[in-house]
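Example record for the data management plan.
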Amino acid sequence: MTVSLKGSWALVLGVSSGIGLATAQRLAREGVSVLGVHFDLGEGQEKAAVAAEELRALGVEAHFVNADAAQAATRRALVPRFAELTGGRPVRILLHSLAFGTLAPYLPTGAGKSVTPRQMNMTLDVMAHSLVYWTQDLHAAGLLAPGSKIYALTSAGDTHVSPNYGAVSAAKTALEAHVRQLAVELAPTGVAVNALRAGVTLTPSLERIPEHGEMVERAARTNPHGRLTRPDDVAEAVVTLSRTESSWITGNVIGVDGGEVLTS
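Corresponding structural encoding:
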């Protein structure tokens, strides 16, 4: 049985652009109020402020905070604040959409330097481990309840190799392992945890990958739908999967790619 999401709350980590922003916009149109964390400078902060105002214009609450979501101090400060903003009501949807990591190769190539331990640790901490830490803190604060849904964003890089994607690929693989573990540990509480494997999607994080042009060309050519995945495709999947109180769909890597992985 499906239920309305109107009047519920969502927390989007990485809310200011790409899939995070598209999901916040889609949820707001469903009547969901949005708590958002983003990490931007200058023009990025201005765009995030405009986005929050646009969500409020849809008749929901929107509270965006510019802070590093991967830092423990950020969680310590924001989780109690979010609890106050929701009036203690649980977060119905948590979307982990943090895409910041090194694109250095494992071995030096030409004038390029190889990945350092600091870069590797940072990439896994931001893109994978932070999912666990946010879940721990939200659970401890009573902000996860039966019917809550947790989504992490992964990619085909969990199994495919490309020249500059090694550390990010490791993070995606770790992220999927975290999803499985959290799904099992949260099952008794009725909270579902899944990873969404988006197809190649034009986002700021994709454009930072040196070989992204080749990836875009190949995906557009081979995707059965004849186009790339769009941020709103993933946002629609979040809404669709969240319209149930059931936690029976949990611990999965769910493809949201129009069949791209089948033909790439």
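Summary line stored alongside the record: The domain at 9-258 is CATH 3.40.50.720 (Rossmann fold).
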